[in-house]
Design brief:
about 425 residues, alpha/beta, Adenylosuccinate Synthetase, Chain A, domain 1, Adenylosuccinate Synthetase, subunit A, domain 2, Adenylosuccinate Synthetase, Chain A, domain 3, three-stranded mixed beta sheet, 19 strands, about 30% helix, adenylosuccinate synthase activity, Adenylosuccinate_synthetase, EC 6.3.4.4, magnesium ion binding
Length: about 425
């Protein structure tokens, strides 16, 4: 029996999809525990690229039971597409009937707020994530289980003046509101789609633990975007750490908490980025690393690895081991730098907006390597410079590095 968790240890987009897919080989259950369709987990299997936004990446393994928990926001159009993929894979899927549903009006509110903010926009994916979580925390939201019939969906929409309030918000933001009738028509195509997959994922997890099954919890985004630990307002609306697993499933004891981090750093959207590279090196990393958002297609900002932020993320996320991705992208760079501190900032400081916006990075410089490492099959066969780089990271962070990615395919991974 094992209970393991995968979380992002940076600002998201670290490679959780690939590494989750690999680790899921030994799982009986794989559980997506937070976030929504604003996440994009990319897999490359025998050269074929697959991007999942809602369902766990365990759908690629027919032996794995894939659960989507009660704290995950359900975008039904995306869900419809992914269930079709899952069917082709012969995947086992169970969706929690309590999971909040992202309605078209949530996307309108998200889009309208970004337009209204202008240059001050946060840079959301405009998938309705923030507005839906707002409704979740205010205790008035449509649950996935409400989409089993038109009557139940209608009742959920009309609860305590819910739809009237949403309509007023949409009008204020200069969008065209969806009527009660139009929303019911929108829901028509999903009733039969959803019913076969509904279940109680909390009960299933509890039973799986009692039966000593292997469980892998899959997170989205990253600790630096966490609703509590991120730099407000440039963060997501959910908890991206073990807190979400604790609250959703009552699970507190884990065998492994695996933090995924790139050998460099990327961010998409607005917000502070102390080690951002606005030069040819940053452009080269973006090009070689194919750094474009899996959900939006937006180009990601790229920068040197920030060990201050990574150490903070490991501490706040309870990370027990790290897996480093995209080491191959660093091959042939003119130079390699790593941020080891911020001037005049205590090493235990919380990385708030004020700290990150005013951070002045202190760098260590490392020797480069020229040899292509994408075909290396054993850790010991990496260039000495690459191993020196990884050894420094491990010693500085005080967290073991258990695996290193040297390419996008599930086969391109080295175990340390």
């Amino acid at each position: 029996m094992s209970i393991n968790v995968i979380i992002g240890a940076q600002w998201g987009d670290e490679g959780k999809g690939k590494h989750g897919d690999i680790i899921s080989e030994k799982a009986d259950y794989m559980v997506r525990f937070q976030g929504g369709a604003n996440a994009g987990h990319t897999l490359v299997i025998d050269g074929e690229k697959i991007i999942m936004h809602l369902l766990p990446v365990g759908i690629m393994r027919p032996s794995v039971v894939n659960l989507v928990g009660p704290y995950v926001l359900m975008d039904l159009e995306v869900l419809e597409e992914e269930l079709a993929i899952a069917k082709k894979c012969g995947a086992k899927i169970i969706l929690d009937s309590s999971a909040p549903v992202v309605l078209p009006i949530h996307k309108q509110i998200d889009r309208g707020r970004e337009k209204l903010a202008g240059k001050s926009a946060i840079g959301t994916t405009q998938r309705g994530i923030g507005p839906t979580y707002e409704d979740f925390w205010s205790r008035r939201f449509v649950k996935l289980g409400d989409l089993v019939s038109k009557e139940r969906f209608s009742k959920a929409l009309l609860q305590s003046g819910y739809l009237q309030e949403k309509t007023a918000q949409v009008k204020f933001l200069r969008e065209n509101p969806w009527s009660h009738k139009k929303l019911l028509e929108w829901g028509d195509k999903f009733y039969d789609l959803i019913k076969p997959f509904l279940g109680d994922t909390r009960a299933i997890v509890a039973k799986a633990i009692a039966e000593k099954k292997n469980i892998l919890f899959e997170g989205a985004q990253g600790v630096m975007l966490d609703a509590l630990h991120g730099a407000h307002p440039y963060c997501t609306s959910s908890f991206c750490t073990l807190a979400a697993v604790n609250a959703s499933f009552g699970v507190y004891n884990f065998d492994r908490v695996i933090g995924i981090a790139k050998a460099y750093v990327t961010r998409v959207g607005a917000g502070p980025f102390p080690t951002k590279l606005d030069n040819s090196i940053g452009e080269n990393i973006r090009t070689v690393g194919a750094e474009f958002g899996a959900t939006t297609g937006r180009p990601r900002d790229c920068g040197w690895l920030d060990l201050v932020a990574l150490k903070y993320a490991c501490r706040m996320g309870g990370v027990t081991e790290l897996q480093i991705t995209k080491l191959d992208v660093m091959t042939g760079l003119k130079e390699i730098k790593v941020c080891v501190g911020y001037e005049d900032v205590d090493e235990y400081a919380s990385l708030t907006l004020d700290v990150l916006e005013n951070a002045k990075p202190v760098y260590n410089v490392f020797p480069v390597w020229e040899d292509d490492i994408s075909k290396v099959s054993e850790y010991d066969k990496l260039p000495p410079e690459a191993k020196e780089y990884l050894a420094f990271l491990e010693n500085f962070l005080g967290v073991r590095i258990s695996a290193v990615g040297v390419g996008p395919d599930r086969k391109q991974i080295l175990y340390c």
